[in-house]
């Protein structure tokens, strides 16, 4: 007989309707993510944003949504758009901070984000354990391609695309297709909370990818699982949920 999940038990498969960002329009989620990245110092004054197409792909929205969001952020004093061949969209030299009320939805979802990270840890550590035994040379080659793509990335948007492909290739290398659906749901929900990050930080993250790949190639299942567990667990501190907590403690002190 099938057991029924207690109504109060959280689940990545049932929690979408409960998420605060689900009650926020697509345009406002883009505004909130860019504004929050500015507030947390992840996007620096004067920094150029990726083009609309790359930004839309990285944030999982349409290009029209990004254009509308950037237009509003410009009116709010968060970004500046410059015409011409060397133009584009830049973080304002003195960006206005804490101007986007919809950032509150991200703060409201902090507990949910931490839970999604834990779910991802469980899944990816297990995938790494199996991939160390089952991943073939073409699979390793796919990981190498992703690593090179991330090394060559010129923006956080390009890096994010390579990062997603790396982790999906590793998950597929575990040879457990029945678990991929759950993994894609968890990561899909978690990616909705990712913010732009400085490239220097992301390049450090790619060094961890290289260490994970080396452990997989050596068939060292224990090391691969441990490295991947630690790599994903770092999100508790490096995602906005950890950075916001640190910033708030600093303000209180």
From TrEMBL:
Q: Where is the HTH gntR-type domain?
A: 24-94
- This protein's superkingdom? Bacteria
Record's keyword terms, sorted: DNA-binding, Transcription, Transcription regulation
| SUPFAM superfamilies per the UniProt record, alphabetical | GntR ligand-binding domain-like, Winged helix' DNA-binding domain
A Pfam entry, by short name = FCD
Database matches in SMART domains: FCD, HTH_GNTR
**Is Transmembrane among this UniProt entry's keywords?**
no
**Has UniProt tagged this entry with the keyword Transcription?**
yes
By its UniProt entry, which Gene3D superfamilies does this protein fall under?
Answer: GntR ligand-binding domain-like (1.20.120.530), Winged helix-like DNA-binding domain superfamily/Winged helix DNA-binding domain (1.10.10.10)
Protein name in the entry? FCD domain-containing protein
Species source reads Streptomyces rugosispiralis
